[in-house]
Description:
With 206 residues, the protein is α+β, with helices and mostly antiparallel strands. The protein is 33% helix and 38% strand.
Amino acid sequence: xxEQYRTVARAGxxxxxxxxxxxxxxxxxxxxxxxxxxxxxxxxKEHPTATHxxxxxxxxxxxxxxxxxxxxxxxxxxxxxxxxxxxRREVRYTAAVVTRYYxxxxxxxxxxxxxxxxxxxETLDAVGTLTRQRFRLATVTVDHQRAGRLENDLRATGxxxxxxxxxxxxxxEIGLPDSEVPAFRAWLADTxxxxxxxxxxxxxxx
Length: 206
């Protein structure tokens, strides 16, 4: 299981011109293959008169889904180099669409491969990437008397406090790396004089 993965920091567009052809790369974070296909359809709609709308996407922290398409360019000269660039940069959960407006000068197979892969790399540089870390969701239940101070202590020690709910007792939802669970249990018992409980939930990335 992957402990972390890299993805694009935000959606973004970058354009470059090569031998009078315009190459416009759109990148977006996508959670599923459906989202990637919707993103491709949206870009195609924005550029209905473009010569080509080529795509590549990588889904899964372990890159379990990898797809690419040349949209009429010679086989392997567009989608494949775009996908290779995403993989080389170790980017996951990301879709790339490169729109080409043909400028009248043929680039040849090598030129196309460099153009399509290159504009994806330039766009990744422009939008930036971020790393998401795998963690365990955990719920701390504590009495009202200790809740305020405990929440402050959690935030002060850099814990990811995701939610706080007040009922008969107070439940605080946090995120913890698996490796830190035993140490956190000990810290929690010490901080609350053994009055708080810790319940582990599922896994997520953040």
